[in-house]
Amino acid sequence: MLNRWTALQGNPAVWRVVLALLFSVLLHLFLLGFLHVDLSMFEPERDVVKVRFAELVKSPPPEPVEPEIPLADKPEPEKTEEPAPEPEPEPPAVTPVEEMPAVEPVVETSPQEFAGDETTVDEPAEVLAAPEPELEPVPAVSLIEEEAPPLNFVESEFEILRGIDGYKVGQTRIRYIARGDGTYLLESVSEAKGFASLFISGNLTQRSEGLVTEKGLQPQNFLYQYGKSGKAQRAIFDWENRSLSLETEKGIKTARLPRDAQDLVSFMYQFMFVPPLQEMQLNITNGKRIKAYGYSFVGEEDLMTKMGVMRAMHIENINDDGDEKTELWLALEYNYLPVKIRKTEKDGSVIEQVVSNINTELLQ
Q1: Distance between CA atoms of 259 and 242, rounded to whole angstroms?
Q2: What is the C-alpha separation between 144 and 118, in angstroms, rounded?
Q3: Residue 47, Cα to own-chain centre: how many angstroms?
Q4: Which domain holds residue 312?
Q5: In sequence order, what are the beta bridge partners of 188?
Q6: Contact 340, 330 (CB under 8 A)
Q7: Cβ contact 138:121 at 8 Å
Q8: Does residue 36 lie in a domain region?
Q9: Residue 156 covered by a domain
Q10: 126-171 pLDDT, tens per residue?
Q11: With the CA atoms of 107, 110, 112 and 116 taken in that order, what torsion angle do they form, in degrees rounded to the nearest 10?
Q12: How far apart are CA 231 and CA 3, in angstroms?
């Protein structure tokens, strides 16, 4: 047995098998984790640098130092020399008088008598007030601005505008003449223009004739005619009998004639004689009926027209139901002539007449 073992040791093939077996065992042990080989001995030595981290804290900025402002030297108060007190005048020596005369009022004493009185105390002459000169009374006429006389001739042109946008549908010409015999003629003619003329045919004529009195216009005849003569309305004023005849296509009827009655055209020119704020209750006839209209003052306004800006007085009348309104703008520089007329109907539609030209001639 020993000889065989010795023979195997001397066989190189046996050794190779043994080494291969040993290497296989070591490799399995290493892979299975039972054998650990430290290879750090073969690595070169490295210098170890220890790093320490510290939190950086930003230091607060230094507080600004306000520069010291040098204080100005307090000015010394000026020394004012107090005036020396004036010496009190010595009271004049008064000679005792046994009996004092009665002192008369200065008003009743003339300057000559006052100067010759030896018992009065001497005082500067300026103390005595000189009598004020009498002022001449200013005539009252110069303090009151005279009203301009009523106009003798007026020819006005108006543009008829309809709707809120105010598009032109026609024009009106009004001519007023005060004749030399004390009568007047007032005529208004309206006609459709442009697109409206295709639907509206014929002219609307209103004519008023009467007397020019101290109280203004006193109409005698009024005509309201649209298109054909059959649609005419007339009013005849009988001032002596205080009667008003109203003629329409339906017949004639009579009404009582108020003292201040006007027709549909004359009432607007009556303001030349009686200012609007003086009389705001007007009795007006249109040829069919006569009715009292109360106008109220709205205000003064700057009215823009083709003639420029006019200062006008705005008055208005609202009917009892409040659904119809008539407004007038009266020019202050033209003796309260009408320069704008606005009519608001029950359905809310609006029609206006705005002046575009005025030709006047003052009464001589």
Answers
A1: 8
A2: 54
A3: 94
A4: 151-362
A5: 174, 206
A6: no
A7: no
A8: no
A9: yes
A10: 444 445 545 444 343 333 345 678 889 999 999 999 987 888 999 9
A11: -50
A12: 170
Q: Which two tokens stand for residue 12?
A: 């190189």
Domain membership flag for residue 139: no
b/e string for 300-333 if b means 16 or more Cβ within 10 A?
Answer: eeebebeeeebebbbbebbeeeeeeebbbbbbee
Amino acid at 124: P
Give the closest residue to 261 by CA, choosing from 241, 247, 246, 281.
Answer: 281
Using CB atoms within 10 Å of the CB of residue 258, give its burial: 0 to 12 exposed, 13 to 18 middle, 19+ buried.
Answer: middle
- Please tell me the distance from the alpha carbon of residue 209 to that of residue 177, in angstroms, as a whole number: 10
β-strand pairing of 262-263 with 281-285: parallel
**Model confidence pLDDT, tens digit, residues 228-281:** 666 899 999 999 999 999 999 999 999 999 999 999 999 999 999 999 988 889
Phi and psi, residue 133, nearest 5°: -70, 145
Identify the sign of the CA torsion 217, 218, 221, 224: positive
The DSSP bridge pattern shows strands 281-285 and 233-238 to be unpaired
Residue 93 placed within a domain: no
For residue 237, what is the domain's CATH number?
2.50.20
Band the pLDDT of 19: cuts 50, 70, 90.
Answer: confident
Q: Say which amino acid occupies 108.
A: E
Predicted local distance difference test score (pLDDT) of residue 36: 56
Closest CA to 222 of 213, 232, 230: 232
Length of the chain: 364
Number of domains in the chain: 1
Number of H helices, E strands in the chain: 5, 16
Residue recorded with tokens 């009004």: 174
